[in-house]
Amino acid sequence: MLKILEKSSLFSELSDAELREVGLFIKPFEVKKNERFFSQGEKGDELYIVDNGSVELFISLNSGSLKKIKTLSDGDCFGEMSIFADGARSATAVAAKTTSGLIVAGEIFSLIRLIKRPGYATVLRKLLVNAANSLREMTNLLSDSKSSLLQTIKQMPTDSVEDSDIDGRRK
């Protein structure tokens, strides 16, 4: 399991001793195709590392529909937003195919904030960068969705049914 940690970009710069310490807070997972890891709004503070497979992240729009924001594959991490957001999941994660990897317990991130080691500082920096990038991607996606909705509204007819007769001519 430590080899999977070592391969992930988040933990790749840790020393062997640091990897072993983080290893105390990990457990393996396997999720079948179309099964959910978690849903947007649920509580959770675990981080997931994909070893083999594919995961799709979705956000719920005001219309109630889900919008895919990202597809993750081998070596990618997800779930980091809840570490910084009081444990609330900011997206829904679904296995695009059978996926295996590691779950890193959220407690480790509280501990590594207290332990002053260079490798741990790098992990926290990478977590913050990942979270910032995720926020940027969601903001861009929502801005694009809002923009396309506004374009659709602008293209809608300005006449109401009451303003037209049956043939579509203005009264």
How would you characterize this protein structure?
- The protein is α+β, with helices and mostly antiparallel strands and 171 residues long.
- It is 37% helix and 26% strand.
- It contains 5 helices and 6 strands; from the N terminus they run H-H-E-E-E-E-E-H-E-H-H.
- The protein has helices at 2-7, 16-23, 81-84, 107-114, 118-155, and strands at residues 26-31, 36-38, 47-60, 66-72, 77-78, 92-104.
- Strands 1, 2, 3, 4, 5 and 6 form a 6-stranded antiparallel β-sheet that branches.
- A hairpin with a 5-residue loop joins strand 3 (47-60) and strand 4.
- The chain is globular and about 50 Å long.
- The termini are far apart.
- Mean pLDDT is 80; it is low at 152-166.
Brief account:
With 171 residues, this protein is of the alpha+beta class. The protein has helices at 2-7, 16-23, 81-84, 107-114, 118-155; strands spanning 26-31, 36-38, 47-60, 66-72, 77-78, 92-104. 37% of the residues lie in helices and 26% in strands.
Secondary structure blueprint with pairings:
Layout: H1 2-7, H2 16-23, E1 26-31, E2 36-38, E3 47-60, E4 66-72, E5 77-78, H3 81-84, E6 92-104, H4 107-114, H5 118-155
Antiparallel strand pairs: 1-6, 2-6, 3-4, 3-5, 3-6
- The count of DSSP E runs of length 2 or more, i.e. the number of strands, is 6
Radius of gyration: 22 Å
What is the N-to-C succession of helices and strands?
HHEEEEEHEHH
First-to-last CA distance = 74 Å
Residue fraction in strands: 25-35%
- Unreliable stretches: 152-166
Count of individual helical segments: 5
Mean pLDDT across residues? 80
Largest sheet: 6 strands, antiparallel
- Structural class from helices and strands? alpha+beta
Overall outline:
globular
Helix content: 25-40%
